């Protein structure tokens, strides 16, 4: 079979590991050939593709980013989009199956194409870990590790000056990165979109820690909404809808209300760059191999997933039924340690 691969949406550590394992497994186990579409769905619509052979993927598992490039183009965008246009490209290139590696938007496009009768499957990807249908997505562990390391460094400089340190992490709609990195770094407060917290409560936690002679560490997800407000208190909003500057707003409020010198650090895209962790390399590698097996079984409209420790197959609709948010009990578990 001739299999097409594409990576779409925000870049993510582990994408190259998926490409590598899919190509190697397909060639060695089934005698498949591979074609990589450049820049996600944009490459499919523009018929911009490159052949992928073993030499092209050598050593890729440890490298961040994606050799195929990415974009946020939807396959149904514009006058040249749609199922018929995609089908024409696949037929012209003699592609028997298309593997779409991406997040919610990418997989939604893949689902529509599969429903239209095209041979498309999915591989779930996002550093936010907010996709349903899978326990974890590759890239999440790397983002948490990067954020945790940064917070460890912030704590040492904070302790030197008895400052309160605020770390803003990604998480427009869900707080998985904030929760996990905050717990790992021993944060004194973690603020996530799913759980409103009043500024009075936050300042009480900060003051409690500072009065014990410690430097408070506050972790805030970019989409956090304080109690009593309806939107994130950001300084601005990015073109893609992401709030910007919530860390600065929180920092100013803490300093004004408590008198404690406070500094903010926004980790931004640092969280999604660089090489993947060992966990993400393994997960991405298993996903890539399982995706090829899924293609061989012609189970179009499905995606690979991890449940527990097992790689399973689920319908793409499982990933598109809303976002996987942080359960209240998980945040309550962490809250028991805030201000301590």
UniProtKB/TrEMBL annotation:
Pathway: Carbohydrate degradation; glycolysis; D-glyceraldehyde 3-phosphate and glycerone phosphate from D-glucose: step 3/4. It is an enzyme of class 2 (transferase). It catalyses: beta-D-fructose 6-phosphate + ATP = beta-D-fructose 1,6-bisphosphate + ADP + H(+). One of its GO terms (molecular function) is diphosphate-fructose-6-phosphate 1-phosphotransferase activity. PROSITE patterns: PHOSPHOFRUCTOKINASE (PS00433). Its main location: cytoplasm. Mg(2+) binds at residue 104. The keyword Metal-binding applies. It is found in: Cytoplasm. Its EC number is 2.7.1.11. It holds the Pfam family PFK. Keywords: ATP-binding, Cytoplasm, Glycolysis, Kinase, Magnesium, Metal-binding, Nucleotide-binding, Transferase. Its cofactor is Mg(2+). Substrate binds at residues 126-128, 163, 170-172, 222, 263, 269-272. Gene3D superfamilies: 3.40.50.450, Phosphofructokinase domain. The record marks 105 as: Important for substrate specificity. GO terms for cellular component: 6-phosphofructokinase complex. Belongs to the phosphofructokinase type A (PFKA) family. Mixed-substrate PFK group III subfamily. Catalyzes the phosphorylation of D-fructose 6-phosphate to fructose 1,6-bisphosphate by ATP, the first committing step of glycolysis. NCBIfam families: PFK_mixed, PRK03202.1. This is ATP-dependent 6-phosphofructokinase. The gene is pfkA.
